[in-house]
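for ur thesis appendix - Imidazoleglycerol-phosphate dehydratase. copy paste whatever u need, i formatted it the way the template wanted (i think)
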Amino acid sequence: MREASITRTTKETDIRLSICLDGKGTFEGTSGIGFFDHMLTLFAAHGGFDLKLSAKGDLEVDNHHTVEDIGICLGQAIAKALGDKSGITRYGTFFCPMDEALSRIVLDLSGRPYLVFDVDIAVERIGTFETEMVREFFLALASNSGMTLHIACLYGVNGHHIVESLFKGFGHALGEAVSFRKDKSVLSTKGVLV
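the 3d part is after this line
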């Protein structure tokens, strides 16, 4: 089983996160932000990951520190669980419709962190969740996992639908990328993915 746990404690947050890449698609715990928990549940379910989270953050200030630090921890946990990445498919792509919204997620577990984020969300909040934090979450995750990640919402109107399509699509794309090929070597002409 490919799994890892990360703990991150700062003056702003206290986070304990674990992931199993070969799981059943479950999410346990809470970020303290209802809508964000809903998105993490969708990510885990659609990727086939088991994700556990205990998070305490300065939510009386705003969502920023908590959401970003969870992205940092999740990125580090994915990288740790993958190890040297032997045998993985490496690339993942998924188009995810959610009613009127359609998102495209493309990623490469290359070891080279990069984020392209082409998403417009018309509302500032969904519940208590600040929608500008969607980009910050994926930026922290990509940077700390060594992932090249391209996220685009091709079209959509409803903010909830748009963000939901991103998290579901990301789960599917990452699930594809971490799946195994028949050849157990590292999929790189350099012989290493770092």
